[in-house]
Amino acid sequence: MRKILILSVIAAFAYAGCKKKVNNVSTTVVVSYPIITISGSQYVSIPVGGTFTPPAATAIDTYYKEKPTVVTNLGTLDNTIPGLYTVVYSAKNHYGFIGTANVYVAVTNISDSLDLSGWYIRTVSPANPHRAAHYVKLARGLFMTNNVGGVDTADATTGASVSAAFAVLSPTTIDFGSQLTSAGTLTATSTSLSLVPADTVVAYALNLSGFGTQVRTFVKQ
Predict the structure, then answer these.
(1) Could you list the residue range(s) of the whole structural domain that residue 40 is in?
(2) How far apart are CA 194 and CA 220, in angstroms?
(3) Is residue 5 in a domain?
(4) 211 and 127, same structural domain?
(5) I need a surface site. Which of 21, 47, 52, 82 has the fewest CB within 10 A?
(6) 84, 107, 130: which is the final residue of a domain?
(7) Same domain, 40 and 95
(8) What per-residue confidence (pLDDT) applies to 80?
């Protein structure tokens, strides 16, 4: 009986000792994404069959004081087919939070003399001068519009202006590719271009959250 009692006491002390070693540790992880900086322009144009050299890039996580490696994903880029392509740069910190940046590549043989820069009015009824978009040339055959939806800039109820890039592939064809905008990922269908002198017309239907699918037509002023 004495041996049994001694063993019971030892077991009790051993169990108590084990319980003291159990520690509940909680760790708070602050969400922080690396910021990627592209060296040079994020908008590049190459001829069909030409070589695309990804611009250099660096990444830094200012919260965790890290400089993670930048990985370049060429995705669907095909230098043999005219179009607008997105090259994604990404960097991951030690907690697995990923920061991204995009480079847009126009693959086109259009002449560098083509310049669509200027103001355009979206043709809706009734005519409204506030439904204007300004086009800027970024590279050969590559342009940016500051109001891709042609929303009424004097009426906040029509939505915010959204900028988007597009490539001119021929005198009658443009391409928005698949690109990230302030309103989400944008693609376009029913695209067309008319370069009639003094009457340049750009048209397309958007696939973009918050915008209808009707064809939007813009006439250069």
Answers:
(1) 35-107
(2) 10
(3) no
(4) yes
(5) 21
(6) 107
(7) yes
(8) 98
Query: Three-class SS of residue 83?
Result: strand
Output the pTM of the full model. 0.84
Question: Are 156 and 216 contained in the same domain?
Answer: yes
Distances 92 to 5, 71, 73, 117, 212 between C-alpha atoms, Å: 59, 9, 14, 38, 36
User: From the first residue on, what is the mean pLDDT of each consecutive set of 10 residues in the chain (221 residues)?
Assistant: 42 49 67 96 97 96 95 94 97 96 97 97 90 97 98 92 98 97 97 92 97 96 93
The tokens for 68 are 């993670």
The number of angstroms, rounded, from the C-alpha of 8 to the middle of its chain's C-alpha atoms is 68
Burial class (CB in 10 A: 0-12, 13-18, 19+), 5: exposed
Residue 1 belongs to some domain of the structure: no
Q: Concatenated DSSP letters for 161-184?
A: ---EEEEEEETTEEE--SEEETTE
Give the span between the Cα atoms of 109 and 114, in whole angstroms: 11
Q: Which of 44, 73, 107 is where one domain is finished?
A: 107
Rounded Cα distance, 15 and 18, in Å = 5
Side chain identity, residue 169: L
Chain centroid to CA 142: 16
- β-partners of residue 217 are 203
Domain total of the chain: 2
Beta bridge partners, 54, equal: none
Same domain for 129 and 91: no
